[in-house]
């Protein structure tokens, strides 16, 4: 929490005020341009990146579904089905 700032805001302006959705969108878009991304960046990409990273680190699909707030598990499966390398050796016999 920042002293003198009330509320549960994550992103604040230099004047310590909450930034608008439009301003946040433009910040992400500009960051994407500066990074040389071939696509136009948008805030929802952060959500996707988080989902892919969690899935890639082995987070259970149902837990990921709950975390992302998906009602339908099929929306979550997009994240988990993306990296076949994660499943390499999954059927190997584990030592007892």
The overall number of domains is 2
* Main sheet attributes: strand count, strand direction, barrel closure: none
**SSE series:** HHHH
Name the assembly state.
single chain
Short description:
With 96 residues, the protein is mostly helical. Helices cover 46% and strands 0% of the residues. One of its GO terms (molecular function) is DNA binding.
Using brief descriptors, characterize the structure shown:
96 residues, mainly alpha, 46% helix, 0% strand
Polypeptide structure, described:
This is Tyr recombinase domain-containing protein. One of its GO terms (molecular function) is DNA binding. Keywords: DNA recombination. InterPro entries: DNA_brk_join_enz, Integrase-like_cat_sf, Integrase_catalytic. This protein is an all-alpha fold and 96 residues long. 46% of the residues lie in helices and 0% in strands. The chain is built from 4 helices and no strands.
SSE map:
Layout: H1 21-35, H2 44-56, H3 61-68, H4 73-80
Helix pairs in contact: 3-4
